[in-house]
Amino acid sequence: MESSQKAWELENAIKLVDPHRDALYSYDKAEQKAISDERPWKDNPHYFKNVRISAVALLKMVMHARSGGSIEIMGLMQGKIIGDTFVVTDAFRLPVEGTETRVNASAEAEEYIVQYFDSCRDSGREENAVGWYHSHPGYGCWLSGIDVSTQMLQQSHNDPFLAVVIDPDRTISAGKVEIGAFRTFPKDYKPAASSGGDDDYQTIPLNKIEDFGAHASQYYSLEISHYKSSLDSYLLELLWNKYWVSTISQSPLFTNREYSSKQMVNLSQKIQKAQKAIQAQARGGPGPRATGKDSALDKIVMDSNKIAGEEVKGLLTGEVKAKLFNGFEAPSVAASAP
Questions:
Q1: For the chain, what is the largest distance between any 2 Cα atoms, rounded to a whole number of angstroms?
Q2: Whose CA is closest to 32, among 158, 126, 154?
Q3: SS3 of 43, please?
Q4: Distance CA 37, CA 314 (A)
Q5: Residues near 302 by Cβ (< 8 Å), separated by ≥ 6?
Q6: Backbone angles phi, psi at 14, to 5 degrees
Q7: pLDDT > 70: what percent of the chain?
Q8: Helix (H, G, I), strand (E, B) or coil at 266
Q9: Which of 137, 195, 224, 336 places its Cα 20 to 30 Å from the Cα of 34?
Q10: pTM for the full model?
Q11: Of the candidates 175, 327, 169, which has an alpha carbon nearest to the alpha carbon of residue 258?
Q12: Closest CA to 292 of 193, 216, 196, 202
């Protein structure tokens, strides 16, 4: 049980905050108001560079995202600003209507937010909302056109504000939280071209590629790290005591088989599309120009390697569990000769 918890913390690089530095959870209202009045991010679109998320807030967001299945969910994050870093101390879910492609906040959600923060103030918690989170079940961590519009609106009225995206399906397959944190650029700002690379690449379903590419230059990602305090350690221990049996017994191959099947179908579609493009180019028609890492075939290879790696990891996990829990047999008693 303890080893499972340690493995989860190791996979997601959760670091223990020194008990003397639990001040990350303290909130100085006057200090935060001074930062808000100064607005150092106003003249620098890249001012914010880091996000620190508490282990309990991360776990709450992941569990919320997973509970939605194939339907998108949404919630808010509480915390504060320290220099160029968002510090997320807590998160809470919102009562919103979600679909497989978007979430719609209603008047009920807005009323819920007001009541929630009133309750927080009454209990002595002064942290403000520092961002929103939502899920992208099975199609990666990035901002769609609707997400970009929502984040721009929030940054214009409630800045500093952060957008976080979690993919619950890829979290199960990869064994670590698939998460991204983003800020949008001002409308008239033109960012410098990014060199990119294999480390920046992520698998995007064929039906989402157009939306992904159309808005990728309107926002940037922040570096995410996780931490836990002495209180977080206690809360995590309570949670693991409750859920350790299901954690050990479940298999990502069975839990996430629908997502795995969709990945294979999507990869097949990408291969067919690339094949048609190559055939058209060979006949002298219009076709894509292969330019190293940007070629469609290279991306297909990276996608297939990622899928294969996740499947192999799931199989090895199953084998290890089988050896540990099914390999104990009662010692055979040799029949004694009369």
A1: 96
A2: 126
A3: coil
A4: 50
A5: 198, 201, 203
A6: -85, 120
A7: 66
A8: helix
A9: 224
A10: 0.67
A11: 169
A12: 196
Select from 152, 156, 207, 214 the least CA-distant residue to 184: 152
Contact 269, 261 (CB under 8 A): no
- Distance separating alpha carbons of residues 293 and 302, to the nearest angstrom: 10
Let me know how long the chain is.
338
Taken in order 232, 235, 238, 243, is the CA torsion positive or negative? negative
User: What digits encode the pLDDT tens for the residues 139-180?
Assistant: 888 898 888 988 999 998 888 999 999 988 888 766 678 899
Contact of 176 with 206, CB cutoff 8 Å: no
Distance CA 126, CA 80 (A): 10
For residue 252, what is the DSSP state?
H
* DSSP 8-state code for residue 17: P
Q: Which of 76, 58, 160, 73 is nearest to 120 (CA)?
A: 76
Tokens 């997601």 -> residue: 12
CB atoms within 10 A of CB 175: 15
